Amino acid sequence: xxxxxLALSRTELASRPIVARLHDWVTTVDHKRxxxxxxxxxMVFLVIAGLEATIIRIQLIRPHNDFVSPQVFxxxxxxxxxxxxxxxxxxxxxxxxxxxxxxxxxxxxMAFPRxxxxxxxxxxxGGLLLYFSLVGANGLYGAGNxxxxxxxxxxxxxxxxxSVGHSTDFWTLALLVSGFGSIGTATNIIATVLCMRCxxxxxxxxxxxxxxxxxMACLVILCVSxxxxxxIMLVIDRYLGGHFFDTQAGGSAVIWMHxxxxxxxxxxxxxxxxxxxxxxEIIPVFSRKPIFGYPVMVGATIAIGFIxxxxxxxxxxxxxxxxxxxxxxxxxxxxxxxxxxxxxxxxLGTMWGxxxxxxxxxxFCVAFLFQFLIAGxxxxxxxxxxxxxxxxxxxxxxxxxxxxxxxxILFCLFGAxxxxxxxxxxxxxxxxxxxxxxxxxxxxxxxxxxxxxxPGLLGMPRRIYTYEPGRGWDTWNFIVTVGVFFQAAGxxxxxxxLLWSYFRGxxxxxxxxxxxTLEWSTNSPPPAYNFASIPVVKSRRPLWDLKHPDDPxxxxx
Amino acid sequence: xxxxxSIDRRVRMSPVVVLICGAGVAFADTAQPWSPTxxxxxxxxxAKSIFGLSLFxxxxxGAIFLVVFALLLYSVVKFRKRRYDDGREPPQVYxxxxxxxAWTIIPILIVVALFMATARVIAVxxxxxxxxxxxxxxxxAHQFWWEYRYPDLGVVTANELHVPVSDPAHPxxxxxxxxxxxxxxxxxxxxxxxxxxxxxxHPNSMWIDPQEIGVYLGQCAQYCGTQHAKMLLRVYVQxxxxxxxxxxxxxxxxxxxxxxxxxxxxxxTTACINCHTVLGTLANGRFGPDxxxxxxxxxxxxGAAPNTPENLRLWLRNPNAIKPGSLMxxxxxxxxxxxxxxxxxxxxx
Lengths: 557, 349
What we know:
The complex is a heterodimer.
Chain A: H1 3-15, H2 18-26, H3 31-59, H4 70-104, H5 113-136, H6 167-195, H7 208-239, H8 253-287, H9 294-308, H10 323-335, H11 337-351, H12 360-383, H13 385-391, H14 395-425, H15 431-451, H16 453-457, H17 474-504, H18 542-547
Chain B: H1 15-21, H2 45-78, H3 97-126, E1 135-142, E2 145-150, E3 155-158, E4 160-164, E5 174-180, E6 185-187, E7 196-198, E8 204-208, E9 214-219, E10 232-238, H4 240-251, H5 262-269, H6 272-275, E11 299-300, E12 305-306, H7 309-317, H8 319-322, H9 335-345
Parallel strand pairs in B: 1-5, 4-10
Antiparallel strand pairs in B: 1-2, 2-3, 5-8, 6-7, 9-10, 11-12
Helix pairs in contact in B: 2-3, 5-9, 7-9
C-alpha cells in the first residue's frame, strides 16, 4: 500500500481549481465516487422527505387541525412515500453496494463502470423530475402541483378523469427513469459479484455482504421490470387512448394493484436485504466472532429471494380475492417468516459467547435486532388475512412498515454509516455524538412508531388529512407527533457529526475496528485502484488469517 | 326516530392505564369500548370470528416475542465486553447444524398452526351463503359519499345505512353488494366486519349480522381522493319493528307542496337536479345523494357535520367550508334564495 503516492495525489487534487474537481465528480466512473454520490444524493432527499413527514405529523397532532389543506396533505404523503422508497433508501443502499462490493471481493472496480455512472445519473434525474412537478405539473398554467395519488397510485385515481394536469405524469416518468437506473445498477452488481472476485474467493468464501446484495440485485431485475411495464401502460392509458386501467372503458383497477405489488413486495426485500448485509458484517466484528451458520445464512437469503416473489397479494387481502387465493397468500406470507427468523437466530448465535463491544455501529445493529423482531411479528399478524381485513390500510400497517423501514433498515444504515465512515473519509467520527444520535433517535423512533399501532387498532385509516374527535385517537396521535421531533434532533446530530468529523476528525487508519474483510486491508480512503496488488484469499475472513497465522479460518471452513 | 346508541358514550383512558393493560383481551370490553371504532369490540359474526383469530395470533406472536426478546437481551448483557477484558479473542464458533435445524423446524410448525387457524376464519367469513331471509343492500361508493340501495325493498338512501338487529338464534344478516362509481374505496365499520374494497368494474360483497342495537361508526379506508378523510360511515342497527317502520317511511315520495314553494322552484331551476333525486318531483339526478328524506338523517356530507339548519345553510352556501374538495359546487345563491332553498330541503322528512 503506497501511502506516499496517495498523499501526493491528494495534494495534487487539493491544489486543482474547484471547477476541475467538480468536473471530476460529474464525469467519474470510479465505483467509490459514484457510491459517495449516491449516498450524498440520498441524504439530501432524506432531509426533504423527512420534512414532509414532519408536516404530515404536525397536521395530525390533534383532530380537525388545519395546518395544511387536504390537497397539500395528500401531496405530502405521496411525495414522502415516493421519495423515501425510490430516492432515499434505494440510492443509499446502491451507494453502499457500489462502494463496498469491489473492495470486499478484491476487485478494482465494478464490472461496468460506465453503466454504473449512467445508472446513477438516471436515478438522480428521476428524483429531480419528481420534484420538478412542484413547478411544472400544471404545464401551461405556470405554477404547478406535486402528485397526490399516493405512493402506490391506485387506478383509476391516476386516470386523466381524476388526475387532471401533469402531476401524475411527473410521478410516472420519475419512477420510469429511476427504474432504468435501478435495473442498470442491479445488472452491474450481479456481473461484479459473479465475475470480479479475487483469486481464491469462491462463492462459498464470499462475504455475506456480497451474497445479500447479489440476491437483492436479482430481485431488482425481477421486480422493477413489472413496475416499469406498468408505468408505460399508464402513460399509454393517459395519452394514447389505452384502457389497461381505465375502468370506465372496461379496464381493470385490480390489474394495476397486481402490477404494483408484484413490484412492491419484493421491493421490501430489495430494501431489507442490504440492511441484513450491514448487520451481517457489523455484528460479527463487534462480537469478535465469525458469523454463525454462514451456509444457512446464504440459504435463508436465497429462500427469502424466492418466497418474496410469491407474497405480493397480501397487500390485497381486502380487494375481494377468492378464499383459495387468500389462503395461498397467507401461507406464502407466513412461510417467509421462517428464513427471516433463521437470520435473527443466527445473528443471536453470532453474539452468543462473544465479547460484544457497544460502539455506535453495534448499538444501531442491536436495536435493529429487537425492532426487526417486532416488525416481523406484526407482519405475521397481518399475514393472517382476516386480521388484515382490519389492519390493512389502517395506521397499524403504517406503523408496521415504518418499523421495518426505520426500525430495521434505517437503523442498520446508521450502523453502516458509522462503521464505514472511517474507510470512506479516512477520518474517525465522534463516538460521543454517535451515541447521542443513537439515544435521541431510539427514543423518537419508539415514541412515534410504537404508539402509531394503537390508533390503527382503534379504527383509524391511513391517508386521512384529519380525523373526528371522540374516536379515542387523539392522545396517540399527539405522542406520535412528539416522537418526530426527537428523531429530527437525532438526524441533526448525525449530519453534524459526519460533517464535523470529515473536516476536523482524527485520522482513522486503515483498520480501526480490527476487522476481517478485504476493504480494511487498503488505505482509508482507498486509492482509485483499490489494491496495489490484487489480494489472494483462502477463507471468508482473509484478515483474520493474516492476523492469526497460528489459527487461520481456512483450517476449519 | 333516533336509535339509542351506547356507542357515542366516549370513554377516555389515560395512556398509562392503556399501557398497563396492553394489547389483547383488555380491548374486548364491549360495554365501554375505548373507541366507537375499536376492532377488539366486535358486535357481529365476521368481526367476532376475526377477533377470535386475532387473540390466537396475538398469543402466539406474543410468546415468540417474549422468548426471542429474552434471548437477545440475555446475550447482549451476558456477552458484553467487560471493563477488565484480557484482550483475547473469544472462542471462534462457526455454527451448529443441530441448532439450525431446531430453529428451522419449530418456526415451520408454528406457521402451520397459524395457517390452519387463519384458513378456518377465511372459510367462516368468505364462504357464508346468504340465507333466504337476508336483507340485500347495494352500497355504491362515490367521491366522497355512500349510496345505499335496498333492491328488494324499493328504498334508496345515502350515507346512513339502516339494518335490522340480528338475533344469534335466528340470524337476519345483511348482505352488502359493494360497487364503486368512480375510484377505489373501502367499507370499514370495525365493530361489524373487516374492510372490503369497493372497486369500479369489480363487484365485491360482504355481510354483517349486528347483534346489538346502536349506531356503528367507520369510514372509507382506501385513499379515494381529496376528501378521503371525510367519507364517514354510519350504520344504524335497529330492532325489527323500527327497521320496518324506517323502510315504510323511506318508500314514501316527498311531501308535495302545492303550489310549488319558492325553495322548490330554486332547487328545480338551478343545477341541483342534475345530481340529486327527490322522489315525486322533477329532480332525478344520480351523481349526488338522494334527498327525498334528507331530514331523516342525522348528518350532512357523509357524516362531516351534524344535520342542523345552520349547517345545512352553510353547506348550501359554501360546501368547501365543511368539506374542502367536496364535489358539490357552491351555487352562488343570495341570502333570500338560500333561506328559501334551506326551508324547502327542511320539508324533505
